[in-house]
Batch of 3 targets.
Target 1
Amino acid sequence: MLFPHCSVAQSNQDCAAARECDISSLLEMLASATDLRKARGRQYLIGFVLAVTMVAVFAGASNYSEIARRARDVSQEMLMRLGSEWD
């Protein structure tokens, strides 16, 4: 489970409210970051990469391999909210 704190410590209503927060200004700010990757390495937009990374870190990831593991666990719904262009 990506956010274990939502299982017992909080009610389902609290977690549902958290999923409905407006994050558009955060996504705009992340999208405005300068992308220093070469064009060949740009499969995903930098704002999306940063947003998924933030979610993984907030979920407890503390290094690159943990970020990758947590990112794999992000739901399709969350990926769409973060700006994913694909399913």
Target 2
Amino acid sequence: MVNAKRRRSSELASLHTDWDVTSNVPTEEDEFFDPAELESDESVRRRANAALKWVWEREESAIAVVAHGGLFHKLIHQNDKVRAEKAPLRFQNCQLEECSFRYIQEEDVFELRFDV
């Protein structure tokens, strides 16, 4: 994905003191970024699925998920592990959407509903 390199985790932690950077950013440097080769669509989907599963396993009942629209597009519309109902075709800058979702373990699939 274009613009895929993240900042150092220590920089993110110092900029955003209320964020829990350590639980989902395991390394200081972005070890997945290679300027010679952008991340593959399959890799983006795997990362997005792992993030969705991480959100599912959280105790909280309401969680804000923030990402580039391209990541949401690959997660929702180009992903055989996600079924989405009434999802936006494209996410605009600063777009706010609310959805509910559930994980169907037998099928290893997430169902998302955007009409909540």
Target 3
Amino acid sequence: MAITMEKSVVEKPEAMTSKAARVPESDKIRFDEINLIDINQASAKELQALPGIGPVLAQRIIEERNRIGKFSSIEDLLRVKGIGKKKLAMIRERVKIGD
């Protein structure tokens, strides 16, 4: 006994296509700003979401933040052992300085 299966093709209506293609650039920018990590308030877990930041480096960032009170610029991260210009460049667009 042989079983045959037919392959069906379902086309997506235009309304079901990706919304990302239709989102205005201004909305994308606002969305990205909302997702920035505030290095003055972030937990170790939140810091680890950044590229190249693991548990040890996240803890060093928190220790430096506690030592100085708060970061006044993103470049202040260069004071943290293990963060150099290359790593700072990797995370610069994903962090912000909050209150």
